[in-house]
Specification:
The protein is mainly beta. It is built from no helices and 7 strands. The radius of gyration is 15 Å and the shape is elongated.
């Protein structure tokens, strides 16, 4: 399981603004280590965000996404929405974090 994500959700005028900073090395599989061996690919492959149990965002990432990816999106919602963010990486590691919209 990876490091905790930093998730912030704020509501204004019926729209919830969600900002997510995911801590992950996001290795593309093209770099080499000091011995000259290729470092295997290891990256977040799927991302799911739910608000009160309903999907509000689904995404698929690939090896071209940079280390510690940041994501920002908005959806129609309200203060107090329980937001659950889950990612799964290419090694089937999984991380889930929750926040309540302020």
């Amino acid at each position: 399981m990876g490091d905790p994500m930093r998730v912030r959700a704020t509501e204004s005028g019926g729209t919830v603004d969600v900002k997510i900073l995911m801590k992950h090395d996001m290795e593309a599989g093209q770099r080499k280590d000091a011995a000259g061996k290729t470092i295997p690919a290891w990256f977040i492959s799927t991302l799911n965000v739910k608000a009160n149990g309903k999907d509000v965002f689904n995404g698929q990432f690939g090896p071209a996404v940079s280390k510690d990816p940041f994501l920002n999106f908005k959806y129609k919602g309200a203060k107090g929405d329980k937001i659950t963010v889950t990612w799964i990486d290419s090694k089937n590691d999984k991380r889930t974090d929750e926040v309540t919209a302020a």
